[in-house]
Design a protein that fits this description.
Mean pLDDT: 95
Strand order of the largest sheet: 4-3-2-1-5-6
Structural class: alpha/beta
Low-confidence stretches: none
Number of strands: 12
Helix content: 40-55%
Number of helices: 10
Strand content: 15-25%
Order of helices and strands: HEHEEHEHEHEHHHEEEEEEHH
Length: 289
């Protein structure tokens, strides 16, 4: 992935705002910009320099991850053992400057603390919406490869556990088996909690598999909604399978859903509102009765 090319692009975007610096606090955005995967950190980006502020737990990890991402020469790592120490590091370069904050991430309490105690000498705190997210919209080749890998792991994992349905497992058991396969095949974790809904539970879009004791029996339609996490990138797959031979009604349901999906895909193109795609799918379903 071209991590090294992201900070220059961020500076271009920052130049088009009312802020001189931006304090990135959303962890996935920090990882995107410099490769750091720790659970605590702040990335201050200015016109010419950047500093990653974190605590002592991540001293070695931060250095190695930034080097692996190819940004060690672009981002300084600064360690503050306490929150006041960390904000003291940020206070120097931002004194008298207009500091941009990720408005979707910073809480009201954090904002008030910055104004009153943490960073009282900044010229102003400027809300910024989607500055990093705008860059993340366009994926580079390395990102696409990781998304494809996550999708491939998910597909192979589902194929591996489908034969278990013949043994009438509970939803919880098949969900656990699927989670294990995801990890065994290389996923770092799940994109979200695995959903397995069989029979009447299939009508619940977010039915949880964990803890469910309903057994999956012949004739059930089973909805799987799950994903794999690979190097920070997720897949999200939804599949419905029939245990045993589907009835005529079930086959008709499959045909309608397949036609609706094709209609939605045909509408998708850059700039199209998602509601237009939704309406194309719904039109097919309404026509089918």
């Amino acid at each position: 992935m071209d991590v090294a090319g992201r900070l220059p692009k961020l500076r271009v975007a920052l130049a088009g705002t009312d802020a001189e610096f931006v304090l990135v606090t959303k962890l996935v955005n920090i990882r995107y910009l410099c490769g750091f995967t720790g659970s605590a950190g702040m990335l201050l980006v200015g016109p010419h320099d950047a500093v990653l502020v974190t605590d002592g737990r991540y001293r070695e990890q931060a250095a190695s991850e930034l080097a692996a991402a190819g940004v060690a020469d672009q981002v300084e790592v600064a360690i503050g053992l306490t929150a006041p120490e960390q904000y003291a590091i940020l206070a120097g370069p931002t004194r008298g400057r207009r500091l941009g904050l990720e408005s979707a991430t910073v809480t009201w309490a954090q904002l008030r603390a910055m104004e009153r105690t943490h960073l009282p000498e900044v010229a102003s705190l400027v809300p910024l919406d989607g500055l990093v997210e705008g860059l993340r919209l366009v994926k580079d080749t390395g990102e696409v490869d990781r998304i494809e890998a996550a999708a491939g792991i998910a597909t192979a994992s589902l194929e591996a556990v489908l034969p278990l349905l013949d043994g009438q497992p509970t939803e919880g058991e098949i969900g656990l088996a699927l989670d294990f396969e995801l990890r065994r095949r290389g996923a770092a974790g799940n994109s979200f909690e695995t959903i397995v809904g069989s029979g009447p539970n299939g009508a619940k879009p977010h039915h949880r598999a964990s803890g469910s004791t309903r057994r999956i029996v012949e004739g059930d339609l089973v909805v799987f909604d799950f994903g794999a996490l690979v190097d920070g990138y997720c897949s999200d797959m939804t599949r419905t399978v029939c245990v045993g031979t589907p009835t005529g009604v079930q086959r008709r349901m499959l045909d309608v859903v397949t036609e609706a999906q094709a209609a939605g895909v045909a509408v998708v193109r850059p700039g199209v509102d998602g509601r237009a795609v939704d309406e194309a799918c719904r039109a097919v379903i309404r026509a089918a009765g």
